[in-house]
Each structure stands twice: as structure tokens, then as C-alpha cells.
Amino acid sequence: MNIELVLFGAFALLTLLSAGLVIFAKSPISSAMSLVATFFFLAGIYVLLWAHTVAVLQVLVYAGAIMVLFLFVIMLLNLGETSSSGPRMTVSRIAGGAAAAGLLVVLVMAIWRMPTTGAFTGAQAVQSGFGTLAVIGQTIFTKWLLPFEAVSLLLLVGMVGAVVVAKSRI
Description:
- The protein is globular and about 60 Å long.
- By secondary structure, it is mainly alpha-helical.
- The protein is built from 6 helices and no strands.
């Protein structure tokens, strides 16, 4: 059996498990730490795909800077354990369950329709310069400039909103 395929399966399974912990963790801090683990496992998948620059950026930017921002907001808002009297069925939980079921159906259909011949016969030739900073920078700042700036603005608005909410509590 191919070691890359085994590692990919392990990283994929661990990514799914840690992402599930992000959703189902009781404490916001535990959820954030599970998200850090998810980012690290995704970086491992990027390494297997020979995208080393993207893997390093995943660890530095997301597991580092973005998670510091998330933890700052969690601690600023002083989010603690929520006491629940029991499981309640709300509209958002029903909609979330329906969305998860729909995603499962889409994934099963995509896997079912995959071609069986020649799909995973081996590594394909990588273009020269693939994964280098020059190619990534060229792509981000030409093709994906508007989404890149929109995400930056969204993070800034979220941080300012957290400060405003926390300030009104004091």
C-alpha cells in the first residue's frame, strides 16, 4: 500500500474528527483549540500535495495569527460555559441537521459518480513553479484580489464588533 495514501487517509480522518470537535465542544476555548488542530492536519494534507508554501502559510497565518485573533475575541467577550437545562430542538438545529444531511447526499453522489479507471493511478506531473511564493502572490493579487481584500475587511469588522460588544458590557 502506498504510504502517501495512508498518510492522506490519516490526515483526512483526523481533520474530520477535530472539525467535529470544533462543532460539538462545550467550551469556546476547547473549540478554538480543536480548530488549531484542524489547521495543522490540513497543513499535513498540503504537504502531501507538494504545496509546501501553502502548508507553511496555513500554519503561520491560520493556526498562528487568526487563532490568536479568535482567542482574543473569545476572552474579550468573556464567553464561558453555558448552562443548558437539556437538549432543545430549535429551528437553527433543524436547519443545521438538514444542511448536514444535504451535504452527505452530495458527497455520496460525488463519490458514486467518480470515474473508477485512471482516477488515482499515481502522481501527475507538477508544473514548474507550482507552490512558489511568486506564483501564489501572482494568483492572489490578480485573480483573487477582491475576495482577499473582502476577507481582510470581514476580519477587521469582526474584531471591531467584538470590541464594541465587550465595551458595552463594562
